Amino acid sequence: MTKWRRNCWLMNDRLLSLLGLARRAGRLSLGNDPVLSSMEEGKAKLVLVCPDLSQRTLKGIESCAEAFGVPLVTIEQTMDQVSMSLGKRCGVLALNDEGFARKALTLTKTNGEDLII
User: Fold this and answer.
1) In the chain, at which end, N or C, are there fewer CB atoms within 10 A of the end residue's CB?
2) Which residue range is the domain that position 60 belongs to?
3) Which of the four pLDDT bands, split at 50, 70 and 90, describes residue 116?
4) Contact in structure between 23 and 30 (CB atoms under 8 Å)
5) Would residue 93 count as lying in a domain?
6) pLDDT tens, 40-67?
């Protein structure tokens, strides 16, 4: 895939575009340790994990999200797609803004009735 086609495909993915906007706004935590510290400080409103994340990391993130009462959603984009879009390879993301978190929930096609932010 050429660089132009890859960038065009990424621009059409609305969730990745939203994550890029949140990163530029400073409302996105990328990686395991920043997400954990964001949850401990009470900043994280929504945690997103990629489907190809290791089971050990997923188990740790799930337990912390449950302990701190932060909703956790598995997105359909892989770590490679997220890294091409955001410029950093990571499988765990935390949105630290309620507006971005609400929009991400609608874009992930998750039924928002059971997740209240």
Assistant:
1) N
2) 3-107
3) very low
4) yes
5) yes
6) 999 999 999 999 999 999 999 999 999 9
